[in-house]
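hey so i finally got around to running both of the ones u sent me last week. sorry it took forever, my laptop kept dying halfway thru and i had to restart like 3 times lol. anyway pasting them below in the order u listed, first the sequence line then the structure token line for each. didnt double check formatting much so if smth looks off just lmk and ill redo it

first one:
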Amino acid sequence: MWTIVGLCAAAGALRFAMHARLVDTEHLYAALSAYLLAGIFLGHFYWALEQIRPGSFAAAGNFSRMSGSIFSFVTLATLGYGDIVPRTDVARGLAVFEELVDSCSWRCCCSLDQPLHAGQETN
């Protein structure tokens, strides 16, 4: 249930950030919040996938909710430590999807910054 609440909160924050006429710090914070909530949501999704299909991830020890969140944020940050590895096609596809969404979201956040500097003169 909390996963759905987090997903709805991320969607609301992203909607707030993207529908701004004038971008200020509140909109940038909303975009960052959506990004972090999406990471937590996908971490729980990875954990649920491991519960439904055991062996989807190769990890040292038990694959817990924290392991799912760690893998999600490592994927978002493109670090790739290798201590948790997706083993099935579904898990790999979800990791690729997460990285594609991450790349697009950073481009959107960078484009949010453009109106902040519009009309300012440089010396």
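and the second one:
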Amino acid sequence: MLKGAKDCLSDMRDVSREPDQYRYDIEEPRLDSFSGRVSWNPIRELSLQVSYGHLHSPEALEPAVRRSDKTAAFNMTILSHLLGTPYQPDFDGHVLMLEEVSEAMYRIDRSLFHITSNPGIRRVAGIMLGRCINITANEPDFGMNEEEVARTWCDKSGIPWLGRADIGHDADNKIVPFGIST
């Protein structure tokens, strides 16, 4: 990054894929994607910016992401804890994709109730459910699976149910751009 008093030039090179599920080994990096940004501040009250990026493997994008969609993806538990705080993102008009790992079904139910009850979340374009893996056993059985729970809370809150998403805590996780149309 080159930075002056009134201008900035930055670049980034990255690997455009998720690491495999074996997080204990070191993979050989192949820097196959890049982005760059030039910004200029001619006066204190004005900032101009030009950006460009190239993603080597666009198939790494979540397949449901369309060019016109604003998207966001979150783990349910993390998002539940952000709601109502100064860190709650503005999801207005976004397709919101949710996933979970290692939680019991009653906790997934509780998280989805909390998420879909939030007024900011009710302005999303719709909710998609990613993979919910390693769901711990409920005793007694909860009686619904994660998709049935998500559909129920979407229906009760008036949020459109948009189906399943190809995201999760695994090597098959797809990229979901946050907050921008792709």
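quick thing i noticed on the 2nd:
The chain has a mean pLDDT of 82.
anyway thats it, ttyl
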